[in-house]
Write a structure and sequence with these properties.
Radius of gyration: 19 Å
Catalytic activity: L-arginine + 2-oxoglutarate + O2 = guanidine + L-glutamate 5-semialdehyde + succinate + CO2; 2-oxoglutarate + O2 + 2 H(+) = ethene + 3 CO2 + H2O
Distance between the termini: 32 Å
Number of strands: 14
EC number: 1.13.12.19, 1.14.20.7
Order of helices and strands: EHEHHEEEEHEEEEEEHEEHHH
Number of helices: 8
Helix content: 25-40%
Shape: globular
Strand order of the largest sheet: 1-2-12-9-14-7-6-3
InterPro entries: DIOX_N, IPNS-like_FE2OG_OXY, IPNS-like_sf, Iron_ascorbate_oxido_reductase, Oxoglu/Fe-dep_dioxygenase_dom
GO molecular function, one term: metal ion binding
CATH superfamily: B-lactam Antibiotic, Isopenicillin N Synthase, Chain
CATH architecture: Sandwich
Structural class: alpha+beta
Organism: Pseudomonas frederiksbergensis
Number of domains: 1
Length: 345
């Protein structure tokens, strides 16, 4: 693999090679380790997600965003203490500035946890999704896609463990039977005259693994080194995968969570993308995994951002991100919440 500073496009990995010959399997694991270590982003082919299912998900996302505003706002995130639902463009905040995209967020369909005065605030994150009444086919389709993506992503995470010379099930206990799955449908409108070009501001993802399904409109950019960005151009039946901050934290910075952003599409066009985020159980605590000595020598330590510290406690870390990104929901449902500094990593 070329030196990361020399690349002009993301590396491509074929997940189906895990089922190939021993040499193909080992080659995939080596490439996976290098891509995640040196770049933090890669294209994934051979993922096993049916292309018809991917097309249906994209088609239903377009149908959702084409609904009248009144039907979308009826399932607005402002109604949900679980941070599920619709947001108009410029509702979500990244680095203090509004993101020019409308979006629909959902997670695992689970019952609300019983609460008392001693319950941690992050337990409020678990609960049901909101679904538009006039698009009834959206719920079963997205929940089917969520299950398919979870199966595939957990398989990839086991490959990560093996690539790091850990037991293949090293990460399994962080997920149990309740991984923190998160889907985000996103529509980026074209740039307005003289306005912001921030489709979504520069950031790192906070979980373990992120997967992005793109339409044909470019816009996603990855910061390979400080100030140098490359385009992650769309490819058919291909997912863009990136490392989240908790996986960087778990490997003491050996794996790389990379800054990325989306530039708004040109005037008169739009961009559609669908993200799947795999996170650990909300009650999990992320340990520091014992990497082999040869890999430890290359571990840089997790990047430190004093304005956005990382917590090893998954629930607190996830809640922190939600509160920062959605201050309106935070004010309505979490005015009493205070993130304890003692939990910072």
């Amino acid at each position: 693999m070329p030196h990361p500073l020399d690349i002009t496009t993301l590396p491509t990995l074929d997940l189906s090679l895990l089922d190939g010959t021993p040499a193909q399997r080992q080659g995939f694991l080596d490439d996976l380790r290098h891509a995640a270590r040196d770049v933090g982003f890669f294209y994934l082919t051979g993922h096993g997600i049916d292309s018809d299912l991917l097309s249906q998900v994209q088609d239903h996302a377009r149908q959702f965003f084409a609904l009248p505003d009144s039907e979308k706002t009826a399932v607005g995130m402002i109604n949900s203490p679980h941070f599920r639902g619709y947001n108009r463009a410029a509702s979500e905040i990244t680095r203090g500035k509004p993101d020019l995209r409308e979006q629909f967020d959902l997670g695992a369909e689970r019952d609300v946890l019983p609460q008392d005065e001693n319950s941690p605030f992050w337990e409020r994150l678990q609960g049901p999704n909101q679904w538009p009444a006039t698009l009834p086919s959206l719920k079963p389709l997205l929940l089917d896609w969520q299950q398919a993506m979870t199966r595939m992503s957990l398989r990839l995470l086991q490959a990560f463990a093996q690539a790091l010379a850990l037991p293949h099930d090293a990460f399994d206990r962080l997920y149990g039977d309740k991984p923190n799955e998160h889907i985000k449908l996103m529509r980026y409108p074209g740039q307005g005259p003289g306005g912001s070009h921030q489709g979504v501001g520069a950031h790192k993802d906070s979980g373990f693994l992120s997967f992005l399904l793109q339409d044909q409109q470019a816009g996603l950019q990855v910061e390979i080194e400080e100030g140098r960005w490359i385009d992650a151009l769309p490819r058919d039946n291909t997912l863009v995968v990136n490392i989240g901050e908790l996986l960087e934290l778990a490997t003491n910075g050996y794996l790389r969570a990379t800054v990325h952003r989306v530039v708004s599409p040109p005037k008169g066009s739009e961009r559609l993308s669908i993200a799947f985020f795999l996170g650990a159980q909300l009650d999990a605590v992320v340990p520091l995994y014992p990497l082999p000595t040869a890999l430890l020598r290359e571990a840089r330590g997790p990047a430190s951002d004093p304005d956005n510290p990382l917590f090893r406690d998954v629930g607190w870390n996830y809640l922190k991100g939600r509160l920062r990104s959605h201050p309106d929901v935070a004010q309505r449902f979490y005015a009493d919440a205070l993130i304890p500094k003692a939990l910072s990593a």
